[in-house]
Amino acid sequence: MGGNNPVGSLSGDDARMFNQLRIIDNLSGEYEILKDLKFRTSWAIDLIDVQEFFYRNPRYGDGRNVGGYATETNIGEDNWIGTQTLNYTKSLNNTHNFTVLAGYEAQKNKRKGLELSGEGYPNPTLRTLANAATPTQASSDIAEYSFESIFGRVDYNYNLKYYLSGTIRRDGSSRFGINNRYGTFWSIGASWRLDQEAFIDNLSFVDALKLRASYGTNGNAGIGNYQHIPLFGFGQDYDGTPGGAPSNIGNIDLTWESTSSFNVGLDFELMRFLNGTIEYFDRESSNLLLNRPISRTTGFSSLTQNFGAMRNNGIEITLNADVLRKNDLTISLGANITFLKNRITKLDEDIVDDTKLRKEGYDFQTFYLYEWAGVNSADGTPQWYVDSTKTEITGDINAAERFTSGRSATPDFFGGLNADISWKGLFMNAQFSYSWGNYLYDTEARFFTG
């Protein structure tokens, strides 16, 4: 018989090996073409190779019933980003200061995975897969994606007091359909250094004070690599004959999710020990990338599409303070809090996504569950409310309906606390995070409590 053998697992009869090699590097160079005009090239690479080997011996434990087994896995991932820019700077009378930047950026990611396994080992010391009598699995996969962008930015400031900036970029992604692979995004911003004004300069407790505001758009491509392509998947073998079947319905019109953002904030530093930010934000996302339910007669249950809109707005406050600076000892404390309101502003039809309901006017993380009504006092069996009226109880969950009850996974507010202590070259850091007003769904607990 098989089974775990804690003592035997320490003997060396079983084996587990994990090796990881990672290379991260950044290279850059700069050349001054003309006075005030510079060309800069920068490259970032991230290469990772992971090898894992897992072996269970044939004499006892989990491998006994199959004569020992082993699995070998290899994952390699290559990622690089190249950025080329032209940067022009000009100052007129040290009062009017300009910076103009234009650039091109490309990114490529490739991931390859390989997994092999076998069972039936003639000798516990012969552990390579070539010695397994029966191969049980051989699989491999390759996934790739790429991005490219052209962009420009103009910055201007007057006497280091009033600032204006504007950006525009054109982004393309291999994750989207050929009809809508590129998106154009832009932003404008302004800031005012109030601490440079005479009416603030006279306030000795104000070290820095800046008012800023911005509005712009940006894109989101956070989906799988091949959602836009109609695909066939193979490995659907029948009686030893290779076979395939459609594995993805595809959507050649899939495109960027776009977010319009407005921010206004105040940055400050007071009394040479307290600094922070108070900021209001309002973000409207459109063309949401969602899995839309479709008829199962198509052979699929959902299709990734652009539809719907969602809004997030709130206030974020950050404070940092150097509470003690004495000789070799420094103690700094920090805190931040974000008050957030979320709601779906446009959705053509309701979407049930596992335990959540996506519905216009609702929070995006609204729970959609069977409502627990306790246990039957007579026999101890579980009970649920039949519907949202909560006027009737049933012991048969199939007779109950799922409904919303105002619970959401989105917190009313969340944030963090941090502390930094340094003393004579020794450093200690502690970080804490919190959230309030949100509900959590415990998947495992439902099997124990109903």
Give a quick precis of the structure.
This protein is an all-beta fold and 450 residues long. Helices cover 3% and strands 60% of the residues. β22 and β23 form a beta hairpin.
Textual characterization of the structure:
- By secondary structure, the chain is mainly β.
- It contains three helices and 23 strands.
- The model has no long low-confidence stretch (mean pLDDT 91).
- Describe the biggest sheet? 14 strands, antiparallel
SSE string, helices as H and strands as E = HEEEEEEEHEEEEEEEEEEEEEEEEH
The DSSP helix count reads 3
Which shape, going by the Cα principal axes? Answer: globular
Low-confidence stretches: none
Q: End-to-end span in angstroms?
A: 35 Å
- Helix share bin: under 10%
Radius of gyration: 30 Å
Fold blueprint:
Blueprint: H1 6-9, E1 15-34, E2 37-56, E3 69-92, E4 96-119, E5 134-158, E6 162-173, E7 182-193, H2 198-201, E8 206-220, E9 231-234, E10 244-248, E11 257-270, E12 274-286, E13 289-293, E14 302-306, E15 309-326, E16 329-346, E17 351-353, E18 356-358, E19 372-375, E20 382-385, E21 393-394, E22 413-423, E23 426-436, H3 446-449
Antiparallel strand pairs: 1-2, 2-3, 3-4, 4-5, 5-6, 6-7, 7-8, 8-11, 9-10, 11-12, 12-15, 13-14, 15-16, 16-22, 17-18, 19-20, 20-21, 22-23
Search tags:
mainly beta; 14-stranded antiparallel β-sheet; three-stranded antiparallel β-sheet; globular
